[in-house]
Amino acid sequence: MEIIYHLAGKAEWEAGAASPEYRASSLAEEGFVHCSEDEAQMLRVANRLFNGRTDLVVLDLNLDALTSPLKREPSRSGEIYPHIYGPINIDAVVQVRRLVPDGDGIFGELLPWVTTER
Question: What is the CATH number of domain 3-115?
Answer without folding.
Answer: 3.20.170.20
